[in-house]
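Quick one:
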Amino acid sequence: MTEEKGRVLGKLPVFPGGPRGRWRGLRVEGLVAVPAVLTIQDLERLPPHTLMDDFRCEEGWTVPGQRWEGVPVALVLELARVLPGARYVAFTAGDFTASLSLEEAMEPRGILALRLNGEPLPPEHGGPCRLVAAGKTCYYSVKWVERVRVAAELPADTAPDIALSRLRAYPKSAAARNAIQAHAKCNAPREFSTFFSHRMSNRRKRFIAASQYLSRWLGSTQMSYHRAALHAAIPCAS
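Output:
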């Protein structure tokens, strides 16, 4: 992928990687009165919503006029009956987590997409169920979303770091790397945010060093997420 700004594509590109195992439903949990696990059939029975939007990626490309069809996030949260004190909603697929404020999650531009451009949402684009958060950075549109957790405290997002790690496959995409690093600086110590900007001949040693640093910083409870940021496939941007 080249560092060409403002590219317009005819369709969403397909990246390596895929869902980790069979999708087993959408779990809605946390600060809700009615936790549930929703199947595709359950979601399809809910009133549908259509969202037309240009899909923009931090890597510098846009796919105009994408038609997403699915269930409003707001409707799922209303059915689950969000409890007092809730402030955030985390969307998770495997080790990948992106969080919205409760206000953002209730906006009509957030849907759980089941169809894309008139067809069932294919696995390579996040099917059978994907969060689409129009207007947010692309990695908030979580592929293969399997859990929606309502919380009082801001969850530990792994999305920026994992999205940054994917850019190892596109070393010429400096603009995208800089954009995601700028976001990551708000959520990590400066040493980690700038770590990826220095080129070294032995990449494996770099990632081992980063893992050791993160282990000291985060502790064992958070480490599994950031190993994914260094080594894993990405269930985010298109």
